[in-house]
């Protein structure tokens, strides 16, 4: 049929939109919520879940019934691990041959060249994800069973494991994870889940196969190093900036300060949980969080944002320029110019969308500039942190944020494929001599 | 002596710093102001004048005496037209041979290869600038003589001509040009002066020599087209966004609305005058102005910012990526990758400095995020518009803004030369395969 003629990115986008539509209908059902849910709120919630953002216009814990919450968890799981993985693995299990179209879809999603490798990858993604989630689920259940009882503990463990591993940031409590600010078990389990989920599957597979640092690929070492550096710097800065703020870290013990600073340092890329009141943090911390949200997590992960690899390439290109080096290098490897160009274009596209989002929301919303900037970056990087604007958004504003969440999760690459097919011009124009800088 | 060993950019920077030091001492003199001027305020004012920014911590018209105001005008003229031009032309006039070092300085500044061409350019810059300023001075004097009398009219015309042509944005009135919001003569003379000053001398020379559109260089046509498009879009958007705002355009006649919208659309790149109360504009307009300030004017002009050419290259690179074209093209010319890399690096360096400025001011100042972002972008692009923060800056904040104005005017290229010499590595590392996006 006509579907055959759709390009892989178009198919991916269509799948996302269908999943959001299905989720919206399910969340709109009377059994999904205690009070009626407006269509726009149902679509917003479904979009937030499928794009693993975590921005909410209604409180997940009190507005939705257990049925509604299970729907949200499943939307997160399917959206996060990717309906692509599900489709490919499902096709393998059913023993059917993968059509040419599906094959191309899979290749697009996993950036691999061989179909075998795609299937292997898809299977591995699913198996390892479920294994990691199982461990997280057991640990969280054990942690919570004494206070909540087995039944409630296992349900909340189920929800939070999915929400954390998929970097969704949905919480069952309107205060997020603030009640657990000093709970080392909950903090370490949840941050471990979302850091593993957000670092990228090729990195995880490389670690699992090679096991030794010097055998890791350049990409793996780069992502691990960059993650370590970014997390450490963010941790120290947030601790420093909030240590004397009585509304955040000020009244905690030294060890609890470290724990909360750690959580707030790692959650913006792009889990979106919070154990502190973000709006009560100092302005400098909030600006730092803005940058962290923009950077985002690893490629081929449940995290979104610009991506760590892209950010490092941009930084190294700038460094090479400032040092006046001819080659852009990192870890004794040269970054090809075409990679730098790709990173540049991704960053520019993201920034243009962020600028447009800020510009439009500034016209439609009656809110401070900071709240709007924060909301737009949070939506575009599918983080889900907010300074409180989400619930007060006008209808136009909700539509804008829905669009940003979808654009942010699909990413500029997919959007690019939607508007154009690769094009090799037959005309090669003479070089221009332009004045720059 | 030792000066011989300084690189051209270091010499340029040193010259700037010496000019600022000289200006600070002159402005600190008792005869320069009616009330004593603090050292930090003198340095701030001198820096703002030499970097043609126009941010002020004391009111130019009431705090400084005529002597002080003349000092400010001269600092603007020397800083704006460039002490480089003065030095080169001065050397020619004195008939002395230009030393090898001066030759390299001149080449660096004008991006030309032959010394003869440098001298020609330097001479042309000075002659045409003074000619244009002379015309502006006469027209403004004639405009103001009926209301102010010849003496005061000629003095104000002298000051505003220098301030406008050099894109400095200094005004003799605390309200800027707000009193002239409906004055077509003043508006058209001053916008023409700062647009000509800010478009770049090579463009002006090209227009003067070729006279016909199809003979213009690609660079000239690109800059003219981009300027036209950016100014037109900004003009229409600001008119639209402010038409119903009683604090700005709302109470003006339709023709005066057009005039004021035009003025506010062209002043952010990077003249910095205002005929409306910027702080009273809608948030959407302010966000648009932020973008315009960031873009800035033409290369080799009295304007600063990222520069129009750089912005266009970034836009075309992103467009090529989204359309999946192999070559980045504009006006049927290919933009070499090395140009794109340069544009990318300039933009990244500017954005890093802007981010750092926002981060630090957020820690040192008690101000809204918007006011801080606006102040930092305005200082870094040497625009001089403000939402009112400048006068309330802490001492630390003033130091940060002084640094931003100098960094913004010298530009990332000069800063790059200061930290490193061109470096061709003997080692060529193997290509890395990194995940991006
Ligand atoms: K999230
Ligand atoms: K200015």
Characterization of this structure:
The structure is a homodimer of 437-residue chains. Chain A has 437 residues and is mainly α. Helix content of chain A is 65%, strand content 1%. Chain A has helices at 8-28, 39-50, 60-63, 66-81, 83-93, 100-110, 115-165, 184-199, 201-210, 218-242, 254-266, 283-295, 308-322, 337-364, 369-380, 395-419; strands at residues 329-330, 333-334. In chain A, a hairpin with a 2-residue loop joins strand 1 and strand 2. The first copy, chain A, starts with 7 loop residues before the first helix and ends in an 18-residue tail after the last helix. The relative contact order of chain A is 0.10. Residues 86-103 of chain A have low confidence and may be disordered. One potassium ion (K) is lined by residues 52-54, 167-169, 270-272, 382-384 of chain B. One potassium ion binds at residues 52-54, 167-169, 270-272, 382-384 of chain A.
Give a concise summary:
2 copies of one chain form a homodimer. Chain A is mostly helical.
């Amino acid at each position: 049929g006509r579907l055959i003629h759709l390009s892989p990115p178009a198919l991916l986008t269509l799948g996302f939109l269908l999943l959001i539509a299905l989720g919206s209908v399910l969340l709109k059902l009377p059994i999904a919520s205690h009070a009626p849910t407006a269509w726009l709120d149902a679509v917003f919630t479904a979009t937030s879940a499928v794009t693993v953002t975590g921005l909410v216009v209604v409180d997940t814990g009190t507005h939705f019934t257990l049925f509604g919450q299970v729907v949200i968890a499943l939307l997160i799981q399917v959206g996060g691990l990717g309906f692509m993985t599900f489709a490919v693995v499902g096709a393998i299990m059913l023993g059917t041959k993968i059509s040419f179209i599906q094959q191309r879809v899979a290749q697009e999603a996993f950036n691999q060249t061989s179909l075998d490798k795609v299937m292997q990858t898809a299977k591995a993604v699913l198996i390892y994800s479920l294994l990691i989630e199982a461990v997280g689920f057991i640990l969280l259940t054990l942690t919570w069973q004494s206070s909540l009882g087995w039944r409630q503990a296992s349900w909340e463990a189920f929800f939070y494991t999915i929400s954390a591993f998929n970097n969704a940031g949905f919480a069952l409590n309107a205060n997020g994870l603030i009640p657990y600010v000093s709970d080392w078990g909950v903090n370490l389990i949840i941050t471990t889940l979302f850091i593993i989920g957000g670092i990228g599957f090729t990195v995880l597979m490389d670690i699992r196969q090679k096991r030794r640092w010097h055998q890791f690929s350049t990409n793996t070492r780069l992502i691990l190093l960059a993650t370590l550096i970014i997390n450490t710097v963010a941790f120290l800065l947030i601790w420093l900036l909030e240590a004397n703020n009585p509304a955040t870290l000020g009244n905690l013990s030294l060890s609890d300060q470290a724990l909360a600073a750690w959580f707030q340092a790692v959650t913006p890329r792009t889990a979106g949980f919070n154990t502190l009141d973000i709006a009560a943090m100092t302005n400098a911390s909030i600006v730092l969080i803005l940058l962290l949200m923009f950077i985002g997590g690893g490629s081929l992960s449940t995290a979104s944002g610009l991506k760590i690899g892209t950010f490092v390439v941009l930084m190294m290109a700038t460094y090479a320029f400032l040092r006046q080096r001819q080659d852009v290098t990192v870890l004794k490897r040269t970054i090809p110019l075409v990679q730098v160009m790709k990173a540049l274009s991704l960053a520019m596209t993201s920034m243009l969308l962020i600028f447009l989002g800020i510009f439009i929301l500034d016209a439609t919303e009656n809110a401070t500039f900071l709240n709007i900037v924060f909301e737009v970056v949070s939506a575009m990087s599918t983080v889900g942190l907010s300074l409180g604007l989400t619930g007060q958004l006008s209808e136009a504003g909700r539509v804008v944020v829905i669009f940003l969440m979808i654009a942010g999760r699909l990413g500029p690459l997919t959007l690019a494929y939607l508007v154009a097919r690769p094009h090799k011009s037959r005309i090669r124009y003479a070089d221009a001599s332009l004045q720059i800088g």
